[in-house]
């Protein structure tokens, strides 16, 4: 490979094989990110790699990652052109907020979403998040009472429905019964999509394999079609009938519909997809709750500390609210620690112009992988990184402190828009669960490394009442 002093050339990397490039190297580990870390030991913190025929660059340290996401964010704002992404979003991945290339439309969509999807802790919207969550959690607890105690139960669908209802209540002022068949199906399909999006496939890099994936692609399209029909019929149509275009928007759906009237660049199509994208965010939260519960059952001392904290703050006389978050740093830190260990990948970026990273040339169209696995799990960044230790995020016994290199929601112009909702809803859900139940497992769950998703059919949990 090229020596480090040839800075104006492309970054060094493994010699690609014909057709598959270096894809075979990624298959040697549980996650491609572990393979990236191993390759960085040979080729350095930035290296080039061909996957299929697609030129890619992998950046492995925080300084280079910041250069891609922040300093040169404008050069690297694109997304890969994977066929699966098109299939999920009505044939065009630019319909999706997370998988589209950067554009002025994306800027508008992000700013429309900001008020509702990134509410500040002291804002009126945040009060609404709390109200919605409190209301839904009462229903959630009633649903849990229908499940048998002290035997393995499938908790994920119930948690996902609670999350889905919090989202639809908050964003669309509507919610659904847990036994509504269409709602249950849509929640399941959203979860299937979340799992799907978190997987990597050879066909992403070798589109000529597509004929072998025909059935899979059809299945993906069908999930998306069923979801779209539900959102149109059960949410938007009912909403439109009661919308006062001269009034103050009641929620995110109103704001989107009103914006459609004012902005000639926004189409009906854009509105539906934007709403669908954000409602779909509930799956990420439900999955993160499951990932955190997997840690809670594995480390009983963590569960017991969370329970002590919620009992102290609520005095055992009321349910926890979002505004208890500041007084419950251990519970919040447990969520951060679960996120760190899960190490959810950052969606790959794409160079939209010829540029450089760390002095190396990166040509337009190159896919940039951000190796955040190293940032989350690397010995260079954490003391005893394999240990599940929420305390690492708590300073002076009560304040949350996250190191700058910890960026589970990424950073820069394409940073996650839903991160506040994740923190708020996840906190109240977990605090309520541990307040009311001891949670155990029939068998220790094994989670996929480098992934915040658990499969739609996943590990069962055992609930034991605390009262
Ligand atoms: C476990 C929870 C979640 C995690 C770990 C997470 C993480 C991320 C990451 C790493 C990105 C990529 C940023 C980049 O490419 O630089 C992202 C993008 C995004 N996230 Fe999240 N996210 C979560 C939940 C949510 C939720 C609940 C929503 C919606 C309410 C949401 C909406 C978005 C959107 C719209 C983008 C695309 C932003 C853009 O490309 O301009 N996320 N998220």
Structural commentary:
The protein has 467 residues and is α+β, with helices and mostly antiparallel strands. Helix content is 49%, strand content 8%. The chain has helices at 23-26, 32-43, 62-71, 83-88, 104-117, 124-145, 156-172, 181-197, 202-205, 214-241, 252-262, 268-298, 300-314, 329-342, 372-377, 419-436, and strands at residues 46-51, 54-59, 152-153, 349-350, 355-357, 360-362, 367-370, 394-395, 399-400, 437-440, 461-465. The relative contact order is 0.17. The model has no long low-confidence stretch (mean pLDDT 92). Bound molecules: protoporphyrin IX containing FE. Protoporphyrin IX containing FE binds at residues 69, 97-98, 110, 117, 277-278, 281, 284-285, 288, 344, 346-347, 408-410, 414-418, 421-422, 452.
Give the N-to-C terminal Cα separation: 64 Å
Helix content: 40-55%
Number of DSSP strand runs = 11
The averaged pLDDT comes out at 92
Rg calc: 22 Å
User: Major sheet, described briefly?
Assistant: 4 strands, mixed
Low-confidence stretches: none
Question: Which key phrases capture this entry?
Answer:
467 residues, 16 helices, 4-stranded mixed sheet, binds protoporphyrin IX containing FE, alpha+beta, 3-stranded antiparallel sheet
Topology:
Layout: H1 23-26, H2 32-43, E1 46-51, E2 54-59, H3 62-71, H4 83-88, H5 104-117, H6 124-145, E3 152-153, H7 156-172, H8 181-197, H9 202-205, H10 214-241, H11 252-262, H12 268-298, H13 300-314, H14 329-342, E4 349-350, E5 355-357, E6 360-362, E7 367-370, H15 372-377, E8 394-395, E9 399-400, H16 419-436, E10 437-440, E11 461-465
Parallel strand pairs: 2-7
Antiparallel strand pairs: 1-2, 3-11, 4-7, 5-6, 8-9, 10-11
Helix pairs in contact: 5-11, 6-7, 6-16, 7-8, 7-12, 8-10, 8-12, 11-12, 12-13, 12-14, 12-16, 13-16
This protein binds protoporphyrin IX containing FE.
Residues 69, 97-98, 110, 117, 277-278, 281, 284-285, 288, 344, 346-347, 408-410, 414-418, 421-422, 452 line the site of protoporphyrin IX containing FE.
